[in-house]
Each structure stands twice: as structure tokens, then as C-alpha cells.
Amino acid sequence: MLSVRRILVVDDEPRLRTGVRQLVLDEWPDADVGEAASASEALEQVRRHEWSLVLMDIQMPDISGLDALVSIKAARPTLPVLIMSMLPEAPYKAHVLGLGASAFIPKEALAERLGPTMGAILAVQGTEWAVALRDVTRRGIDTGKQPRNHGRTPGRSDGTS
Asked: Which residues, listed in sequence order, are joined to residue 104 by a DSSP beta bridge?
């Protein structure tokens, strides 16, 4: 693991990149924060440099953030990628997690959820972080809500009715 947190922020909107950079630096003032304005630029940054975490938008002008996610995970399978998007969480979260993302945060919730979610990812980086992040999410830390029932019948822990 890197001794300095190196976070790559990938979004085509300069103001959003600046805002996310500030949220990262508010959390970790000594972090090294890089920026990429496109998915292809992000892929080049990932090839050339070591990063602790990538924060990436789905909707990019050149390559889809989802395609970039798949390429990043193929090149660096252990590099955590947090997807941030204006797209609704419900239909996209499960999909991006299935593609290998560490987490999904709607952009409107970044101020509230980015710090705790990044902290959970980086705290367990180098271990089985996906299991730890799933457990953190179930406790409601990155969502600010109590855990949901996740398809189980109320009152039953085995999912049967």
C-alpha cells in the first residue's frame, strides 16, 4: 500500500473535479490528488502511476466510465474504483459493483458520503476490502441510513416466509 494517499478524480466537469478534490483534501490534507478530464486520460494515468483510489464518473465524453472501470480492473485488479454519478443509484449501483467498483455514490450525496466511503475503502485496502466495505454499507455508514432488509422476509433471518 502507498504511504501517501494518492486519489485520482475523473470527471469531465472541471468544477466537479475541483469540488471533489476539495472534499478529499478536507478529509486528508496530505493526500496527493490527481485529476483526469476523460476516461482515456484516466486509463493513461492508471497505467503510468500508482493510485490508492480512483473516483470516476460514469458519463464521460470519450469512453464510458463503465468501460473504463472494466479496463482499470483488468489492468489493476486490486485498485479500488469508486463510481460517482448523476444517474440514479437504484438501477446502477448493483451493476457497477458487479463490474468491480468498490462503491457507488450519487453526486448529490458526495458531500455527505464521500469521506466515510473513501475511509472505509482505504482502511482495508490490501485486505479483502470488498467484504469489509459490504459490512460497512450494511451498517449504514456510507449511506447514512439503517441497513435494509436485503430481500429477507421481516422477522426471519433465513429469507423464508
From this structure: 83
Q: Are 72 and 36 in contact (CB under 8 A)?
A: no
> What residues contact 61, with CB distance under 8 A and at least 6 apart?
12, 38
Residue 36 lies in a domain: yes
Residue 114 falls inside a structural domain = yes
146 assigned to some structural domain: no
List residues bridging with 9 in a β-sheet.
35, 55
The SS3 of residue 94 is: helix
Check residues 126 and 17 and name the one with the higher pLDDT: 17
Q: What is the mean pLDDT of the chain?
A: 82
Whole-number pLDDT of residue 135: 55
Report the pLDDT averaged over residues 55-65: 94
Neighbours of 5 (CB within 10 A): 19
DSSP output for 127-143: S-HHHHHHHHHHTTTTT
For 33, list phi and psi in degrees, rounded to 5: -110, 120
Give pTM, 2 decimals.
0.76
80 within domain boundaries: yes
- What residue numbers bound the domain in which 85 lies? 6-138
Domain count, the chain: 1
